[in-house]
Amino acid sequence: MMSSEKLLSAEMSLAALKALDFELKEPLHLVLGGGGALVLAYKFPLATEDLDAFSRERNLPSVTPLIEKVAEKMGLPLDWLNPFFSTFTHILPQDYGQRLRTVFSGNFLKVEALGPEDLFLMKCFAGRDKDIAHAKKLLQIEGFDLGIAEDRIAELIEKRVSGSEKARDFLDDVTEGF
Q1: Which of 60, 109, 129, 177 is the most buried (most CB within 10 A)?
Q2: Contacts of 108 by beta carbon, 8 Å cutoff, 6+ apart
Q3: Are 85 and 42 in contact, with CB atoms under 8 Å apart?
């Protein structure tokens, strides 16, 4: 884990994204999830260890040297921006793109955060203790549509997707009394 000085606040995250935009020579469109999305799109008062993102048009590791260059310049960990959560994006509904929210737009880099319903869905599948407070906070976002997550989890249960039963239990726990 990083020292608290190296946690990414909203300001530090935006500065790092701006620095990456400066290094890019061709367009890169990222979709942000996790803590970075909570901080940048929904103004959650927390700092995150890294920005979890996947590229909409190319493999994020192809820009790893540029990500590492920004890390070295700013004193961040080499994986401050990483695609680790992309292995879980199969649980997102097909229409997730309709709920994306732009958090950064530069000359070459565009970064959009998952919509609150899609982040909530990801939190349900992660099911960690730290996800409980985040999920409950997402429920409070104006216009939040719980049906999107409920329908998707039901669909994934029907398809027998691993972890979907636990995700439904997590959803039931955090929405009790909602």
Answers
A1: 109
A2: 21, 24, 25, 26, 27, 28
A3: no
